[in-house]
Amino acid sequence: MKEDRGGAFFPILINVQKFPCLVVGGGEIASRKITSLLEFNANITVLAPKISTRIEEFHRKGKIKVIKHSYSREFLHGFKIVFCATNNHQLNQSVYDDCEKEGIFINVADNPPLCDFILPANIKRGDLTISISSQGKAPFYTRIMKKKLEHFVSPIHAEIIRLAGEFRKQLLTKTSELSDFGSKQNTDKIKAKMFKKFASVDWAKSLSQNGVKSSQNYVKKMLKEINSL
Question: Which whole-number Å values give the CA distances from 43 to 35, 107, 145, in the listed order?
Answer without folding.
Answer: 12, 16, 29
